[in-house]
Each structure stands twice: as structure tokens, then as C-alpha cells.
Write a structure and sequence with these properties.
Radius of gyration: 30 Å
Mean pLDDT: 81
Low-confidence stretches: 61-67, 117-124, 126-148
Distance between the termini: 34 Å
Strand content: over 45%
Length: 674
């Protein structure tokens, strides 16, 4: 339908993505792409509860912010003249989703013209009503802290430091200098770097064979940091002199070098908080360290909290402390404390993502959300907003100062993918992705291949051309999945991937986007074959291979004690724990199987294509014909994987060191009317 009637006086024009008000074609309210897509989807599913995940699947961008749906709903309601409390069009069902309750009928231009509303309401009541509304709006605006109608822009600036890898950002109180751990490309050890944001100059503190971590500013000029060598860990102090140089280093105290939790936060100008794991019971303890004396004292904490604290930060006014901890490395617990009471948390948030740092100001927390973007939580009001900024690579380590947020963007290495002919040892470059992180490449045909990359902020599946090296993002997953293996059908209509939550199955929709079809917990290493899904499940004493019908969603045991299934030319190949060789089973006849005679070779690095077995053993590639039982070996192949893409060619993945970037994002209020 080109035009859909939503109410007596509102029509949705699908051709122009706009609302026609009062049946007047000249009185239109434009909708942006997301607003139009969300409204159209709701209207098409009238009287059906639509979940948040269904609507998020409509997002075309590479980064979906966790507040974007609420923002779009709020804008839609305003443009429709709707209310969340007394809805006419969109009804919110708590913990369920959204329900469209308006009209949904096709309408023509002729009908719209004939139904044009002609009003004859006296002007004085209108003037009175408008004046009253303006008065109430003005009172509400100046009494409200949220001000949802305000428009903001986020300006992005690159802090130039092109030749180092960076981590552990910290900013001084005036915002004039950054301090961070840096490492020159190709070098092993981290050093302390102080960078002026006004002049862009840098000052380094380096000691050979010593790593410098966790610099924090006590005030505008004084830094405390950790030195870790092979044999010791020391907490040290250094100052930024008026001459623009760094002072000599002074020792404060020792630290627990073997501690997994080793993070610090400034408490006062003369003391810091240090988190260390107790060598007695493995519990994370927060210590108060006096800078002058070097003495540590344990701060009393809740006895019920046994989770390991791996990050600390205090607010600029030194009234709050935030900690990060995790129980399973698939999620992060953010806890906020009053600085005078570490026994009772005053605010908590669970994030289904691994966070290494957050940025704490006096009233809000900034963190990387599940979608690879940046969210801001106001812990006094539980209000959440997101930065409407698009990143070209993974972002992490947020740090806040006034209205500015500093981030690190990018990875420590870019990936180069090559084909190596193991007959001639000639190498052909088949990837041209500047700064991309590429893992798990898989050939689709002689022209295209797939790979997993987090260059869009989180792990996604990409499709690339072998000849041109051009790539496009195939999936738009709504969270940061850790993809460890995957399989696709021949037409790329279905994708199955191993994630930290089990096997995720995606189905290609008519619009070309992929939607989650099902999720199978505790499964891994999927194989798709003729509408069936095969995967491995781990038992306490071994593994089994299961078969899952994607149509009926029925699971059944397929192979007992097997794992690592490979399909080739009508056969499934797999290996067994504690039994040598590779096993083969006919897909149509499970009783037909045999054990290969290659028992002495390492079978973890193996691949089968067109009836030939390829094994990578140290620097040797072995090619074995399973039917003819003939063997060839090739020395110094440079192959990093045994997977064969073209005749006698394997893949090789090379990582090149790469500098990450410091990004400054400034939030600015737009003038009214912009």
C-alpha cells in the first residue's frame, strides 16, 4: 500500500516517508528512515505484539545504540500526537514490546482529497489553548533536567599519536594533559607517555625491560603508576614540571605482581585506592595507599561480594567509586559506591559485554554498550542516552572530562590474507582491508570468501571478493558475540555460528538482512547440510555430535563420542577423543565408516576437500588421497591453516602491528531552530 490511513485525520505516505495531517497533502510531517521503518513495521503487524529485538533488526547502521529505539518511539509519538500514557496509535507493553492499535487501511489520493477536514473552530479558544500550552511547556522545560526536545551534536576529533599502541588513558584535572601506557610498533614493552592536548607534544618515561601500566593523575601535575618487571612490581610517582619535562621517579611501595586485579584510582591528592587479589583466599581487596608513607590498609567491604575487581575509578569530586567485576567473562557488573561506604553499593548495572574500563563523572557513567557503541547512564535518575556517533573500528577505554569523552579506537594489529601455492611457494595477496581485523576466513567459491571482523565495533560476518578485495558487512548482530566458528549453506541463506552462548542460527529475510532463527545453548562447531544442522556438545566425559532439523526444531543424537565434523562429497568426517585417526560416515548410510591409517600425525590441523585430506604438521603440508591412499608432502609452505581454497593453495594469515587512535568526542547543544 502506497498510503495507509492511521486515523481519521492522519495518513502514512509510504512513497515519501511522511505523515499527511488533516488529509491535507500540503500539511505533511516528514519521517526519517528509522522512524518510517519502525512505524511501517508496527502498522503492518497491527494487533500483534512486536518485540524490541524485532524492531532493532530494522536498524541499517553498523552500530545500534541501546537507547535508539526509545528515542525513535518518543519522536514518533510526538509526530503522531500520541501519548504513551493514553495511546491512540502505539501502546507499550512492559517487558513485552509494542502494540499498534490505530487504523490500518489503504487509502487513495482521491479519498484523501474528499475527506479533507475543514475546521470552523472559533479563534479565541484556540489562542487561549495555545497560550496555555506554551506556558505549561515553558514551565516544564526549565524545571526538567532531561529536556528531551534539546538537540545535540557530537563532534569527533582525532588526538594525533600515529606511531604507538595505547592503553590505560587518564586525564588531569584541568584537561590539559593525557597520560597513558604506550608501546612503539613492533616493541615489546610499554612505557609512560604524557601528551599535551594544547600543543600536541609528548614526553616519555622509559626503562628497558620494564612495563609501565595504570597511570592516574592525583592533581594537575602528579602521576602515580605501576612499574612491572620480570621480578617485581612497584608503585611509583612522577611529576610534570613547569618546564614541560618529567621529574625524577620516586618509589611509593611494592605491589602484587602476580595479581590479576591490579588497578588504581585517585582518592585524594595524597592517597590512592589499589585493588589487589589476596594471596590467602583469592578475594579482591581494596587497599588505601598513603603516598607519603607507602603504607597500605584494607578498606572494609561487603562480605558477600567475592567477585574479582579488575577496575577502579573515582569521580572528579571524589565522592563516588565505581568498580568492574565479572563472574563468567561473558558479562560485566558495574557497581557504584559512596566513597565513605564500600560495604553498600548505591547503584549497579549488568552489561552483557566485557568492559575493561568505564568513565565516571560526578553524575554519570560512560561505557561501551552491547552493540559496540557508547552509552551514558545517569545514576541519579537511571536515565540512559547513547552517543549517536559511528565508529570505524572497535572502541574501548572511555574516559570523561566535563562535556568531553575520550576513547581508544582500533586494534593492535591489522590482518593480511594471502593464498600460498604449496607447490611453488608463490604468495598472492587476496585482501586489501586497511586496519581490518580478520579471523576465520572461509571460501564461498573461487571468487568470494567470508571472514569475521570487528572493524564495525563488534564481531560481524563479512563477504569479500578474492579478486578485488572489496568487502561488505553481511550480518548486523545486536550484541558483541564472540564468534569462534561458523558455517553457511551454498546460497548464503542460512548462517550458523558458535558464540559464547552456543550456536546461533541466522536466516536471510526477503529484505536481504539476517534475522536470528534459533539459538542452541551449549553447542559448537556447526555444519549446515540440506536443511539439517549438525553440531558438537561437550559432556563431562567426552563429546557427541547432534543433528537438528531446522524446520521441525527436533534434536537427536547423531554420532556418539565424535567432534569436529567436516562434510565433503557425500561423507561426514570427524575425530574421536582417545582414538587415533579420522573417522568417516556416509551421510546416507551411517554403517559405512573407516579409520584412516594416518594415526601418527597431529589431527587438530586438518581439512578435507574433494576426497583429499590435508594436514598441517609443523612446517610441512601433507596431502593424502583417501581413496587411492597416496601421499604427498610439501616443505616450508607458509600455510597458517590447512584449508585449501584453490588447487594446491592454502591460506596464510599475517598480523601487522598497528597504532590505535585516541578520539575526543565533544557533546554540544545545537542552537534552537537548527
Amino acid at each position: 500500500m502506497d498510503k495507509i490511513r492511521l486515523s481519521k485525520n492522519i495518513v502514512l505516505d509510504c512513497l515519501s516517508s511522511a505523515l499527511i495531517i488533516d488529509n491535507n497533502a500540503q500539511n505533511i510531517v516528514p519521517l526519517d528512515n528509522l522512524e518510517f521503518q519502525v512505524l511501517k513495521y508496527l502498522v503492518e503487524h497491527k494487533e500483534v505484539v512486536v518485540t524490541k529485538d524485532e524492531l532493532l533488526a530494522l536498524w541499517p547502521s553498523r552500530v545500534v545504540m541501546d537507547h535508539s529505539l526509545a528515542r525513535v518511539m518518543s519522536i514518533l509519538r510526538k509526530k503522531l500526537g500520541d501519548s504513551s500514557k493514553n495511546p491512540t496509535f502505539i501502546k507499550t507493553l512492559n517487558r513485552q514490546g509494542y502494540l499498534y492499535i490505530g487504523l490500518n487501511s489503504a487509502v487513495t489520493d482521491t479519498q484523501i482529497a474528499s475527506e479533507k477536514i475543514k475546521r470552523s473552530i472559533p479563534i479565541l479558544p484556540i489562542i487561549f489553548a495555545v497560550s496555555l500550552l506554551l506556558l505549561l511547556s515553558t514551565i516544564w522545560y526549565f524545571s526538567s533536567d532531561s529536556r528531551p526536545n534539546e538537540q545535540f551534536i557530537y563532534q569527533t576529533e582525532i588526538i594525533v599519536d600515529p606511531d604507538t599502541q595505547k592503553q590505560d588513558l587518564s586525564i588531569n584535572q584541568s584537561g590539559s594533559h593525557l597520560a597513558y601506557s604506550a608501546r612503539t610498533l613492533g616493541q615489546e614493552y610499554w612505557f609512560l607517555r604524557v601528551k599535551s592536548l594544547r600543543t600536541n607534544s609528548v614526553i616519555d618515561h622509559k626503562i628497558d625491560d620494564v612495563n609501565t601500566f595504570h597511570p592516574i593523575w592525583l592533581d594537575d601535575n602528579t602521576l602515580v603508576f605501576q612499574h612491572k618487571s620480570e621480578n617485581e612490581c612497584l608503585i611509583k610517582e612522577i611529576s610534570l614540571l613547569p618546564t614541560g619535562q618529567l621529574s625524577d621517579v620516586s618509589n611509593i611501595t611494592s605491589c602484587n605482581r602476580n595479581s590479576a586485579s591490579q588497578t588504581m584510582a585517585a582518592l585524594t591528592n595524597s592517597s590512592v585506592l589499589v585493588a589487589e587479589v589476596s594471596p590467602l583466599n583469592g578475594r579482591s581487596l581494596i587497599h588505601l595507599l598513603d603516598i607519603a608513607s607507602g603504607k597500605k590498609s584494607v578498606i572494609e567491604q561487603s562480605e558477600n561480594d567475592d567477585s574479582e575487581i579488575y577496575f577502579l575509578q573515582t569521580s572528579p569530586d571524589r565522592k563516588h567509586l565505581v568498580t568492574l567485576s565479572t563472574a563468567n567473562w561473558f558479562s560485566t557488573t558495574i557497581k557504584l559506591y559512596d566513597i565513605d561506604d564500600f560495604k553498600n553499593e548505591i547503584w549497579r548495572k549488568e552489561i552483557k559485554n566485557i568492559l575493561y574500563t568505564v568513565a565516571l563523572t560526578n553524575e554519570k557513567l560512560t561505557y561501551i554498550n552491547e552493540y559496540g557503541g557508547v552509552s551514558v547512564s545517569y545514576f541519579n535518575s537511571n536515565q540512559v542516552e547513547s552517543l549517536n556517533a559511528i565508529f570505524t573500528s572497535k572502541v574501548y577505554s572511555p574516559m570523561a572530562h566535563e562535556n568531553n569523552i575520550f576513547l581508544l579506537e582500533g586494534l593492535y594489529a591489522s590482518t593480511n590474507l594471502t593464498l600460498v601455492n604449496f607447490l611453488t611457494n608463490k604468495v598472492k595477496d587476496i585482501s586489501h582491508f586497511n586496519g581490518a581485523n580478520m579471523t576465520l576466513p572461509k571460501q564461498v567459491n573461487n571468487k568470494k570468501f567470508l571472514f569475521v571482523s570487528n572493524q564495525s565495533g563488534k564481531n560481524q560476518l563479512w563477504l569479500a571478493s578474492i579478486d578485488s578485495g572489496e568487502a561488505k558487512q553481511l550480518t548486523v548482530l545486536d550484541r558483541s558475540y564472540n564468534i569462534s566458528s561458523y558455517d553457511v549453506d551454498g546460497l548464503l541463506n542460512r548462517i550458523a555460528m558458535t558464540t559464547q552462548f552456543g550456536v546461533l542460527v541466522l536466516n536471510k529475510e526477503n529484505n536481504g538482512q539476517y534475522k536470528v532463527l534459533t539459538s542452541i545453548p551449549d553447542a559448537q562447531d556447526p555444519v549446515i547440510y540440506e536443511g539439517l544442522l549438525f553440531y558438537t556438545k561437550i559432556r563431562s566425559d567426552g563429546t557427541d555430535i547432534y543433528q537438528y532439523d531446522l524446520l521441525t526444531q527436533v534434536e537427536q543424537l547423531y554420532i556418539k563420542d565424535g567432534y569436529k565434523l567436516v562434510q565433503d562429497a557425500g561423507y561426514f568426517y570427524y575425530i574421536k577423543y582417545f582414538q587415533p585417526g579420522i573417522w568417516r560416515v556416509s551421510i546416507n548410510d551411517k554403517n559405512h565408516f573407516f579409520e584412516t591409517p594416518l594415526e601418527s600425525l597431529t589431527l587438530e590441523q586438518w581439512y578435507i576437500k574433494n576426497g583429499e585430506l590435508y594436514l598441517l604438521n609443523e612446517s610441512q603440508m601433507i596431502k593424502y588421497n583417501l581413496e587411492q591412499q597416496t601421499l604427498q608432502s610439501f616443505e616450508n609452505t607458509q600455510c597458517s591453516e590447512p584449508e585449501v581454497w584453490r588447487t594446491n593453495s592454502c591460506i596464510n594469515i599475517q598480523d601487522a602491528p598497528r597504532a590505535n587512535r585516541i578520539i575526543k568526542i565533544s557533546k554540544k547543544r545545537l542552537p534552537k531552530g537548527k
